[in-house]
Amino acid sequence: MASGLSRAEFVRRGVVGGGALIVSASGLAVLPAVASADTLPDGDLAYLRLLIAAELLAVDFQTAALESGKLHHAGQTLIRKIRSDEAAHYKHLAALLTAAGQTPATSADIDFSYAKGTFRSQASVMKLAGRLERLQLGAYLGAVESVETPELRLPIGQIAANEAQHAGALAGLRGESVVGKSFEPALPMGAVSDALDTFES
């Protein structure tokens, strides 16, 4: 961990700084300045930091998957598309957090690690890819349920919809049903944080 702060600490705290304008990210709507550090509730700030950490994990994993040389053409194409989406999600969430006077975590702040054998084959890569997408979907649904700031709900909901698409596409590539549950579970913040901890070096 380059900064000396653990990922959990990034989720729980932020460094107060100046405000910033919000920029759009890959089709997500440009929002008005939704809050500043003294108006955005602590719980909403914590959710933004948690979702940012989840996006950083996703991009790190997908980059390692592409570099593993184990993905066939269809797998490479899908993981590249998903990684592009996750990068756009990160950019938008980071802009929201910055606009609230906070400093978002970056890929230099968190070191991730994966279980032995994760990148042994396309099947093993896709298995974890599906698990991470379900984690992200649950995290975003938990945020939709819990955030207090109305202006945060639309982008969080839009990202949740995209994560559901990812989960379905990955399931289809594994020969499973592309349609998930009628009501996907919303994961509480603590459960998501604990799951992310398992990937932190």
Describe it.
It is built from six helices and no strands. It starts with 6 loop residues before the first helix and ends with a helix. By secondary structure, it is mainly α. The protein has a single domain, classed as Up-down Bundle (Ferritin), CATH 1.20.1260.
Per CATH, which architecture? Answer: Up-down Bundle
Note poorly predicted spans: 1-5, 10-33
Terminal Cα span: 8 Å
Order of helices and strands: HHHHHH
Q: Which value, in Å, is the CA radius of gyration?
A: 16 Å
- Tally the helices: 6
User: What is the 3D shape?
Assistant: globular
Quaternary structure of the protein = single chain
Number of strands: 0
Sheet/helix structural class = mainly alpha
How much helix, percentage-wise, in residues?
Answer: 55-70%
CATH topology: Ferritin
Strand content: under 5%
List the helices and strands and how they pair.
Layout: H1 7-12, H2 42-67, H3 73-99, H4 122-146, H5 150-173, H6 189-197
Helix pairs in contact: 2-3, 2-4, 2-6, 3-5, 4-5
Concise description?
It contains six helices and no strands. It is mainly α and 201 residues long.
Keywords:
Ferritin, 201 residues, 6 helices, disordered N terminus, globular, 58% helix
